[in-house]
Amino acid sequence: MLDALYKRRLEADLRTWRERGWVTQESAQSILDTVKVDGGPRTAIVIGFLGAILIAFAAIAFVAANWSEIARPLRLAILVGGMAVCYGSAVLFDRARHPWFADAAIFAGAALFGAAIMLVAQSYHISGDYPDALLMWGAGAFFAAVLGPSRAALPLALGVLGLWSWYEMIEFDWTVHWPFLIPLALMAVVVSAWNWRPGMHLVVLALMGWIVVVVFKLADTADLAFATSVGLCAAAALAMFGTGRFTASRAEGTKTGRLGSVLSTYGLFAFLASLIVLQFALRDSPTPEIGDEGMALIAAAVIAVIGSLLLAAAASGLRAIALDAAMPILAAVGAAGLTLAAANSTEFANSLTLQVLLGILVIAASVWAAAYGTRHHSRSAATFGLLAFAGEVLYLYFVTFGTLLDTALFFLVGGLLLIGLAAILVRLQRRLSPPIQGEPA
């Protein structure tokens, strides 16, 4: 379906290009011939996949409902037999050249494996920490995904292992559950080897979620201020951005380089979002206590320095450093300086000046992000930068004039501001976009 939509869009573009003399009729037809539209029954595949999932859960529900009435050897035989049927079906589907159905069968087998762990533990009264069962389930689903291979079983393994890490940190004594990074790194290797871009996004999102949970677990354990937690998240985001840029620059055009590109994009998103959230943290929450939270602040500084060094190392030459690394580094330094100033002065922390200075910092970083996205052909980074710019301008309007104007005038000025902002964004997009050959710049 997506291939067909892309081909229709390409046909329309090629017609325009032929009219402008950019391509010949023969070249246009050759380009179209390279786009292969998969006419397979995608709807049937999706319905079949959902059917396999429902069958797996039906089997789990039936066995669980009648668990006490079934003899123990028969219970084990049913569970093992169900998994054997699923994996055997996957082999048959693969040989019959139905990879999507084979994928669904592997997913069902991995789901039954998790049910088997839970039900067998209950049947034979096996005690222990319940996250260990999630670890075993996630490991089994991961091996099934690799051996299949199965792109459906890999997100299942990632989700289960994420729950394992969550419960270890929330319910047990772990503060920084670093063992989760081992399977996450293995999954990063697998999705890079498969060149599976959605899988890369899932792995990076899982990393971001783990970082957030770790930071707020640390905040709860050490009684850190909200602003300190946000600062740690900003430093981690800068490190992600730097690591992704460094990886993408050193492995450009490779599968590893694509993973680095995804990591840098999410790192940039998280960095800008952290700067925005820092405004609310310093406005509505207590400021950091430097004496009590010194170690956390030092850790944030060290992580930010590592990210900055990686950003600088990713750039080739002073001009590239100035364009691609200087602004986020300066933004991090500026945010740290304003946070420390707010911690040392309650009057400054409660002042409008702090909000305006942070707003200017966010606006500068947002415009830089839009320009960065345009230079590196990252539409998502450019779009997010422009949205952050627009949102920050509106936020500054609300905090500066919201209490000074009456309701009618407030909305009138707000409407005019939105119209003006839309015009500014259009001009920014045109200035940041490279000119098309044959058209005026």
Description:
This protein has 441 residues and is mainly α. Helix content is 80%, strand content 0%. The protein has 18 helices and no strands. It has helices at residues 2-19, 25-33, 42-65, 72-95, 99-123, 130-147, 153-170, 181-194, 197-222, 226-250, 255-284, 294-314, 318-324, 326-344, 346-349, 352-375, 379-401, 407-432. Helix 8 (181-194) runs antiparallel to helix 9. The chain is globular and about 75 Å long.
Report on the biggest sheet.
Answer: none
Could you tell me the radius of gyration in angstroms?
27 Å
Treating each run of at least 4 consecutive H or I residues as one helix, how many helices?
A: 18
Q: Spans of 5+ residues with little confidence (pLDDT < 50)?
A: 435-441
Strand residue percentage: under 5%
Helix content: over 70%
- Beginning-to-end CA distance, first to last residue: 36 Å
Mean pLDDT, nearest integer? 81
Overall form = globular
Topology diagram in text:
Blueprint (H helix, E strand, L loop, with lengths): L1 H18 L5 H9 L8 H24 L6 H24 L3 H25 L6 H18 L5 H18 L10 H14 L2 H26 L3 H25 L4 H30 L9 H21 L3 H7 L1 H19 L1 H4 L2 H24 L3 H23 L5 H26 L9
Helix pairs in contact: 3-5, 4-5, 5-6, 6-7, 7-9, 8-9, 8-11, 9-10, 9-11, 10-11, 10-12, 10-14, 11-14, 11-16, 11-17, 12-14, 14-16, 16-17, 17-18
